[in-house]
Amino acid sequence: MSGAAALHAGKNIIVTSSFWPFRVKPLTTTASLLMLTGCSLRGAPSFPLVGAYFPAWMMCAIIGILAAVCFRVAFLALGIDAILRFRLFTYVSLGVLIALLVWALAFGP
Predict the structure, then answer these.
(1) Fewer beta carbons below 10 Å: N end or C end of the chain?
(2) Rg of the Cα trace of the chain?
(3) Which DSSP category does 6 fall into?
């Protein structure tokens, strides 16, 4: 019987001490370290607002929510809201679209 595996008495169940075999660990460690090369030490984009630094994603999310509310008001005024089948999905999608557009324009490469 090897050191990592044990055979239970009366049952044919082999229990190993770890999920990955020994040879796979260096490969998975190297692969996970290579995936971290995209991360930088610059930190998240932030901007000063009233003496505090806010993360940029928070500003983009607020702009997206305000845009979705503005779309809702405009669609109600124009009568477009009545013909929408999935209203919540539509307004959430418009808000996310505007938030991502602001993010790409303001903080994109």
Answers:
(1) C
(2) 26
(3) E
- CA atoms 41, 44, 45, 49: torsion sign: negative
In angstroms, rounded to a whole number, what is the distance separating the alpha carbons of residues 108 and 14? 52
Q: How far, in Å, CA of 36 to CA of 59, rounded?
A: 27
Distance CA 93, CA 82 (A): 17
Is 52 in a helix, a strand, or coil?
Answer: strand
Q: Which helix (H) or strand (E) is 48 found in, with range?
A: strand 46-49
Which two three-digit tokens encode residue 47?
Answer: 């901007």
3-class secondary structure for 39-89?
CCCCCCCEEEECCEEEEHHHHHHHHHHHHHHHHHHHHHHHCCHHHCCCHHH
Give pLDDT tens digits for 6-59. 455 556 665 555 565 556 667 777 777 777 766 666 666 777 777 777 788 888
Which three-class secondary structure state does DSSP give residue 69? helix
- Is residue 34 within a helix (H) or strand (E), and if so which, with residue range? helix 24-35
Cβ atoms of 68 and 92 closer than 8 Å: yes
